[in-house]
Amino acid sequence: MPLLRVEDLHKRYGTEEVLRGVSLTVVKGETKVVIGPSGTGKSTLLRCINRLTEPDRGRVWLGDTEVTGKGTNLNRIRSQIGFVFQDFNLFTHLTALDNVRLGPLRVKGLGKKEATERAMAELARVGLADKAGAYPAELSGGQQQRVSIARALAMDPQLILFDEPTSALDPELIGEVLGVMVKLAEEGMTMIVVTHEMGFARSVADEIVFMERGVIVEQGSPEKMFRSPEVARTGDFLRKISELYGDAA
Amino acid sequence: MTLEAWSQLWPKVPVLLQGLVVNLELLAGLLSLGLVIGVAVALVEVYAPRPFRALALAYEWFFRGVPELVLLFLFYFGPSQFGVDISAFLAAVLALGFRSSAYQSQIFRGAIQAISPGQSLAARSLGMSRLGVIRHVILPQALRLSLAGWSNEFSSVLKDTTLAYGIGVVEVMRQARYLTARNFPLALPAFIVVALMFLILTYAGNWGIGLLERRLRVPGLEARG
Amino acid sequence: MNLVFDWAWLPQLGRGLVLTVELTAACMALGALGGLVLALLRVYARGWLSPLYALASAYVHLFRGTPLLVQLMIVHFGLPNVGIVFTPFVSGLVAMALNTAAYQAEYFRGAIQSVKAGQMMAARSVGLTRLQAIRHVIIPQALRLVIPPWSNELIYMLKYSSIVYMVGAADLMGVGRTIAAKNFRFLELFLVVAAIYLAVVLLLTLTMRWVEKRLRVPGLGTSGRGA
Ligand SMILES: Nc1ncnc2c1ncn2[C@@H]1O[C@H](COP(=O)(O)OP(=O)(O)OP(=O)(O)O)[C@@H](O)[C@H]1O
Ligand SMILES: [Mg+2]
Fold it and tell me: What letter would DSSP give residue A94?
């Protein structure tokens, strides 16, 4: 059984149809990379999966729980789906440690000692144990994004959604964040990653999904998508994006 | 609060309105005084040599730090101790006007400082004098930028005109007190009517200033934040 | 004519000052509580709670749109018409607290709304409920952001509390006036009273600046305005 099942998601803002029937499945341990032009609905798709945005139509299952079901405990579901934002969204008034600890304390109901240990372990996992006492404004963008990954990890999520996690970073800081993500993938974490980093997509993704104007145009292994895409648009886009981000194969 | 009280109050509303006119006269006087002095103080604070700047700041600090009622008493009773008699109305215009100038000067100073230095450089490069720059380039922009802050000051001093009651100006509060001293059950309705009058004036005034702001709007020149 | 000062005034004025300070402190505390609730309603009460939003908004407009002195008169001279009678001190406290709550509501609302939208989204993504997010993420940030305008309000209320002498309370202003009415040294007394107010304003300004610095968090913009 797939870990995540998305069925026929629709979403419109005003008259603009942003998602026009998106379906996909993710199995445990899989890394799925979503690519596509700007304004195509990639962020909207991720946010509809844990209902930070309410979809108009369609269904989402996490394991055998229907996320979109009426009586679903949404906060419990969200605690099981990590989310990493493009602009980090670390809690400004809290130190790195407190950012990571807030969920375990308030959502999981762990004791202070346990939550602290947990948070410190996750900070160590992203290589930032020594920055536990720093406020977000005192950290570089790359460090902030790693803290936000630790914040997601501390909830023991079954799945993490990454929305362009490196797009807001200076080029020299992208590597440290991608490094953490590669490590997570190797450890068997299930992830959906929206990104323009083709190097990451090529080497880490189990499957690449190409979205355009609210629908999935094509999906398949990196091998297939880069070598012999079935749809011409896919090839065009991959060429363009690889040029732009300097990662032609 | 009976219906009877309201019906007794009704014929007295013109008296209250007479009082309100005095509040409006007071408002006009104190705002004009405050505007003129406020602009002057702001200009001194931005452009004048150091000692003058310090003096202007001290002036601001004094008039912002002392309660308006205390200022009213100082201006009303102070001169009479030197044998100079001053009407309660004039004392109120002076006290509230000086106080308002200390607030208005901050608004203008902020506006002047928000204008980019390039504006004045460009004007100087045309050969304009320093005063010319201030008059033709800085002030027209600064006055527009200060309208938002000025509208706050307007609502605030409009309500503060009631404080003139404290030194015996026969404005709307005083009229209301006269009415209710003779007829105690009128107190609640009378003061509610006064409150409504100010509510209407506040909103009418802000609407007017908003209109002015739109009339004077220049694309690209907006108060930020 | 010479100015004449008398040391004997000071103890009396001191007692008045105590009342002024008590009144200001109490009304600011009550106003903060009320203001925070009003602000939360104005920002978050939507859907089936929207009647509360409308009530809170009406309250804020009403109390900001009318003079505090009129509010005081309604409380002290008007409410007895419907059988509610307060002492001068309580009348002053009630009117001032109701009034400052409306102003503080606007400061809190501004602070809450200047917390970035991503903060709420991130909190929800971790699984916090809306209420938890408001309590643990939004309010702590808003409280820091509100310090500068709140300090201004504190000083404003300290000065404005002088109106309570008009309903017979013996605050700093009232005591000064009473002494002056006996010896006709209006100028001297009100100079002394002004100096005392200025000193307290200065003290409060410095204290609040210290508090702001103590609570400062890097990156959490406290754009201060001078008091
Ligand atoms: N809250 C919103 N209200 C109205 N329109 C929105 C909202 N969020 C997104 N949109 C619109 O929906 C469309 C898709 O947005 P979305 O952010 O999902 O695209 P995206 O694929 O993530 O693009 P990008 O690569 O630029 O991040 C855009 O046209 C955007 O303007
Ligand atoms: Mg996006």
Answer: S
